[in-house]
Amino acid sequence: MSSAVLSQDTEVGGSRDVWITYWAFAIFYAVLSIGVVFLGRATPPPRPDVTATQAAAWFEQHQWGIQFGFGVLLVVAGGAAVSNGIIGYFMKRMSSGPVLAYGFIAAMGVGALPGFHLLLVCWLTATFRPDRSPEVQYMLYDLGMLSYNGSLGCFTAAYAVLAIAIFYDRNQIFPKWFAYISIWQIVTEVIATQMWVYRSGAFSWNGMITFYIAVVVFGLWIACLLPIMRNSLRAETSTTPALYSEVVSR
Prior knowledge:
- It contains ten helices and no strands.
- It is mainly alpha-helical.
- Keywords: Membrane, Transmembrane, Transmembrane helix.
């Protein structure tokens, strides 16, 4: 009887709300991938070394996919906040303290504006009135891609505070090796600065070094993060201290 009670008291699995947020994280990135890859055609990115007429023709060719795919992404864009929040949840459980968790959430939240939303707005604006002058569409073409692939500072700060939090953590919430993958994210962000200079080649926004290596590293980061969070959540028990104490009104 006592062993059964003990087993019940230390039930493994984590709270339901965190599990819901975890699956919302996974679903958001799945929808995001479909929207930017198969519909919006932002990944792989179109060529930067095109003329204004070619950029306008590209928008005309992919008008339906951009309008539908990016329209859906505007609806689910709040999933980015949920995704940042669950990572912040685990960071707050680290012994490195909550300040780094708040820093991660803030940096990713600010970075989502130029690194995600601006692309959607620019390309939806370009396809909203196809009769705009090619020069205007050309500007929206460049602005969308440069903001999407070239918004660097906020994400660099986010990955840096995440790596620091993992290194200083003594609760073993995330494995130490994941901090090194986060550092590689910083490296790819720094290298990506060159896309603001080159319009063709390995350092352009569709280049092997500035884009495709970054995509591989980011894909690895996400592929590792999902099982890491799942394992950390499963490791929580009914005896795991709550992040916030419940206030009982009298």
